[in-house]
Amino acid sequence: MTRHDSQSDGDRFATIAVGAAKTGSQPHRDGTNDVVPPIHLSTTFEWASGEDANEHDYSRESNPTRAALEEQLARLEGGEHALAFASGMAATSATMLSLVPPGGHVVSSNSIYSGTEKLLTEHVAGHLGADIDFVDARDPDNVAAAVDADTDLIWAETPSNPLIRLCDIRAIADVADDHDAPFGVDSTFASPYYQSPLELGADVVVHSTTKYLNGHSDSIGGAVITDDDGIFEQLAFAQQVGLGNVLSPFDCYLVARGIKTLPARMERHEENAMAVARFLERHDRVARVRYPGLASHPQHELANEQMSGYSGMLSFEFDGTLIELEAFVEGLEVFTPGASLGGVESLVEVPSLMLPDEFSRSEESAAVPETLVRVSVGLEGADDLREDLRTALP
Ligand SMILES: Cc1ncc(COP(=O)(O)O)c(C=O)c1O
Fold first, then answer.
1. Cα–Cα nearest to 317, from 363, 371, 353, 380
2. Residue 295 pLDDT > 70
């Protein structure tokens, strides 16, 4: 395991998350000694020269509340630089549009969030004329076979949405290094608490902060973290100027507030997810459970190697008809049917019934089974979650 293999690593992460570690700048402390960074709504800042010069001019380019969040995000991921965007998709699109030139080449895992897949097929390929190779990235040899000297970006999502497939970040980072291609990882499902792609060799990490980082289902946002100065310059230009795609000060405040409880929430998400996964695995109307914490997950060993915990996302295949599945969803009382994930409340999503876009993938993409149920396990009582499933399952 990478980060919390010792108690002190987990403790250190918790200290950074709360924001008490005394390194780096603390812009919010100036003048007032606020413990909580205030929300700076000002769009512009009075110009001054010399010693009084202000580091902020105009809030699209930089804003104190955003700067405080970005510093915190960088430290959580163990990276040099972080940028906060208006959504997870904004973070991903800024990365792709900055790194992939017209007519370029991308090698992507074939098991990724449907929005990312559509960004690649419709925009990066459709508008920019780039060539996209979707591969089964569970085997790094498939990535190696598709990459060449002209590859502009390698993209993976691990664990993936909604199939909960993993990719070996270190092995793919080696392939990327061999070809001098940047390697981006969407680590949303793991959160920075349970996975550190930069430590494993990735060049760019993307999060939808909408999910675990904010954690309370009340803010849409995204983040990119990188150690690479050149990539940072390109992405900062996209964020601040080229695309002008920034997270609002209020959302920055909400994400920064969520981050403080990330370690405590993630441990509870994982504990509950394990309880739910074990319950489902024993149920006779469940054909298969996909959770990296189960020994039955084909990549359980890889999860143990590259994650420091299994997080709170799982999916399962219902053994029955779509009509029975719909009745199951309607019978749930503690779990709420709905899109999104990573909040305190437990959610279920059935792509085939609820989200045609997530279900209907391109041919190159890994197919989503019709009776697949994605579960974001929240922070309720584990007994109540199990009881809800027991009652609703036929
Ligand atoms: C893995 C993953 N990445 C990115 C996104 C996009 O994030 P957002 O909805 O914040 O744009 C999602 C959304 O569900 C996701 O699940």
1. 371
2. yes
**60 is known as an active-site residue:** yes
Q: Cα of 118 to ligand 1 centre, how many Å?
A: 12
Both 240 and 186 in one domain: the answer is yes
How long is the chain?
394
Confidence (pTM): 0.96
Same domain, 277 and 386: yes
| pLDDT for position 23 | 42
* Residues with a CB atom less than 6 Å from ligand 1: 87-89, 113, 115, 157, 161, 186, 188-189, 208, 210, 220, 222
What are the φ/ψ torsions at residue 226 (nearest 5 degrees)?
A: -150, 155
Question: What local confidence, expressed as pLDDT, does residue 185 receive?
Answer: 99
Question: Ligand 1 centre and the CA of 240: distance in Å?
Answer: 21
**Does the annotation count 113 as an active-site position?**
yes
- Domain range enclosing 243: 20-260
Q: Is residue 179 predicted with pLDDT exceeding 90? A: yes
Q: Domains in the chain: how many in total?
A: 2
**Does any domain span residue 234?**
yes
Same domain, 270 and 233: no
User: What's the pLDDT band for 3 if we cut at 50, 70, 90?
Assistant: very low
